[in-house]
Amino acid sequence: RPRVPKPTPLDRPHVCGGCGYEYIAEIGDEDINITEQEAIECYKSQVNKVITNAEKINMDNMVESVTPLVMAEVNLNGGAEQENTIAYNVTLQNTYDGYEVVGNYMSGIVDDSSLIYMSGNWNKMEKVSMRSKSVIVDFDSAYSKVMENTTVQLASAGISESKHITNSKLAFVLNDVTGYYEPTWVFDMNDGSVCQVNCLSGDLNALE
Question: What is the 3 state secondary structure string of 147-168?
């Protein structure tokens, strides 16, 4: 069976404090002149100006990505369709100790004028002490649990198609029971679903 990379497990949960944000202006339809890197810098300089009701975002604890927003213009004379970049969608992904904090991000749209849209959820993370030693679920155990669960589900549904893991990562995922962001193995499946195995409890959570 195919194997996927194995990150190093963590041993402590984390707690957060923060809230969600949304800021909306208007997206234009004109071709922009700024580059992707300029859009990132613009967004990073503007995001903390918009957030006024919570602690500022630490730009050292995030991973950035950018996607062009393209508008297609149809040539009524039969010529080729023309695509214009009208804005960039910039996303800042929250991390802690180099690991993604799932569901913690800020996403915004930037054009030549400024930041014109922003939404997301961002929490400040801090390490907390464990009262008792926990059994850490390693990658192989988590992998086996996901594949066993997948086999049972397909068999009970009478489905003969195969289902396999396409990617895996170690991340912090919010445990709704404890209220902590806890180290969790996250497996992306080939059908678009996601399976999560908590490193502390071994609980499996399948997200369709």
Answer: HHHHHHHHHHCCCCCCCCEEEE
The pLDDT tens digits for 146-193 are 988 887 776 666 665 667 889 999 999 999 888 899 999 999 988 888
Dihedral of CA atoms 184, 60, 64, 43 in degrees, nearest 10, equals 130
Predicted TM-score (pTM) of the model is 0.76
The whole-angstrom separation of Cα 158 and Cα 8 is 36
Whole-angstrom distance, CA of residue 140 vs CA of residue 129? 26
Q: Let me know: does 57 contact 48? Beta carbons within 8 Å.
A: yes
* 9-20 pLDDT, tens digit each: 455 555 555 555
In DSSP terms, which residues pair with 87 in a beta bridge?
69
